[in-house]
Amino acid sequence: MNHNFDVLIIGGGAVGCAVARELSRYDLSIALVEKEADVAAGASGRNSAVVHAGFNNKPGSLMAKLCVEGNQGFEAACQELDVPYRKTGKLLVAFDQADLDTLARLKAQGEENGCRGLRLLPQEELRAKLPQVGGIGALESPETAVFDPFLYTAALAENAHQNGVQFFLNHQVTAIQKTPEGFRVTAGDKDFSARRVVNCAGLFSAEMAALAGLDRYRIYPCRGEYFILDKTDILPMPIYPAPKAGIGGLGVHLTPTIHGNIIIGPSAEYIEDPADTASTQPVMDKLWAEAQQLLPGLKGRHIIGSYAGIRPKQAPPGEGGFRDFVIREEVACPGLVNLIGIESPGLTASLPIGRMVTGILSLSMDMTEKKDFTPTRKGILRFRDQTPEEQARLIAQDPDYGEVVCRCQTVTKAEIRQAIENPLGARTVSAIKYRAWATTGRCSGGYCLPKISEILTKEYGMAPEEITHRGEGSHLFTGRVKV
Ligand SMILES: Cc1cc2nc3c(=O)[nH]c(=O)nc-3n(C[C@H](O)[C@H](O)[C@H](O)COP(=O)(O)OP(=O)(O)OC[C@H]3O[C@@H](n4cnc5c(N)ncnc54)[C@H](O)[C@@H]3O)c2cc1C
Fold it and tell me: Which of 10, 35, 47, 211 has the most ligand 1 atoms within 8 A of CB, as the residue to mutate?
């Protein structure tokens, strides 16, 4: 097989997949290499899932410009890509006079950045709006939204794939060599040649730049831990505290997810190992105490899980805060476009980042728009969201809709099958989980995981020993325990 491409993208997070999707509008041969067994395996699958409005970022920065642009186009993009999205609005809550001053400053900053509809709420209005929330005043952001970041990333990837981009999962880049024509990149067991390389490797982007001979970047991993609460309707919109200077995040917040759960977090803690997504007791205790201050009625019995995501920060521990995104073609290495320090609001900004990279590449490449580019992509139909009449029609059409595999979330066998048959060919339990939303309920897969394993073995011919949670090193079964 020929592995020569016009553009090679490193990293299948939201940013790499958005770059792939935007570039797939043009007549180019494009490949994306991802070291993990599926897309969204890094920060893009481990975050707060909020479409930010853009008032937190410094006016004139790339973060501010691309976030506001991303926010304003996000709903339309989710419609095109069939990704769940809900404009909830958001409240930033003040607990003292210093916080009220911070909120007034953020309102002015947001207006300078182009955010729409920001409003300061006095205590009475905050009480009337959300009586369950503590605080003495708030900043309301009506344009903030929540969405499903995993499905968003997978949808960008699938749409790029539909438009001709080749995906190579389980292909870790280990060498990048400059050649007269461009680059020779070793990933997994293959050598790729490409005229241009776009480095979207998140936490490992400085490492990729160094492989290409540029030692100037440094990434400091900064972990954010979260609690997941069971489905509840106690909170209609994300609630954040007024941010404190230098914490390197936006503060511990409560966010209703698009699927009806609430997440609490994230913490912000610099760590050594960029792969260490552990949840730790001291941080979880602190998260819970801070969440109680925001929403005093929270009960421990609501907790059903935890997770952590890691920010690729450019600001070292002593500095804290945010440094702006770096998105540029390197003068010292023409043809290499580096994306460094794409921390929050990187999801919100992902499509504008994709367009910015397209603009950079168009300065040195012929870019002819394709006549047959398809901007839309269809996701898996959610049985549980259909009317009883539609459900009956689906069951008549395909009896697998009549078999519920995940009881907590009412996910049918037909949906599990569609998740297994995803266009990217990702066959891990987590690939099925995030596409069909199975195993995500209170039982955490206790009921449906054996059934999913059975479908994978009996209907798709996988040996039980081949089934993994997230790829190599996470096998579900290591041998027989029963004859
Ligand atoms: C705790 C937390 C909360 C956040 N909340 C929000 C939010 O609410 N809203 C928002 O807009 N943003 C948020 N963000 C930021 C957002 O998640 C990131 O900016 C965005 O996901 C970055 O996408 P990415 O594609 O650059 O990186 P990633 O998603 O990390 O993708 C990089 C990919 O590169 C791959 N890779 C790395 N090295 C190699 C290699 N050698 N070869 C091949 N592949 C490689 C990785 O496996 C990974 O899949 C949050 C981030 C964190 C950590």
Answer: 47
Catalytic residues: 52
Distance 44 CA to ligand 1 centre (A): 4
Q: Are residues 283 and 303 in the same domain?
A: yes
Ligand 1 binding pocket includes 258 (Cβ within 6 Å): no
| HSE value, Cβ hemisphere, 13 Å, CA-based, for 359 | 8
Domain total of the chain: 3
* pLDDT band for position 297 (cuts 50, 70, 90): confident
pTM metric for this prediction: 0.97
Q: Is 479 exposed, middle or buried (0-12, 13-18, 19+ CB in 10 A)?
A: exposed
pLDDT at 483: 58
Domain annotation covers residue 398: yes
The per-residue pLDDT for range 187-233, each reduced to its tens digit, is 999 999 999 999 999 999 999 999 999 999 999 999 999 999 998 88
Q: Which of 190, 240, 287, 201 is nearest to 16 (CA)?
A: 201
300 in any annotated domain:
yes
* Residue 474: inside a domain: no
Looking at the structure, do residues 123 and 168 belong to the same domain, yes or no?
no
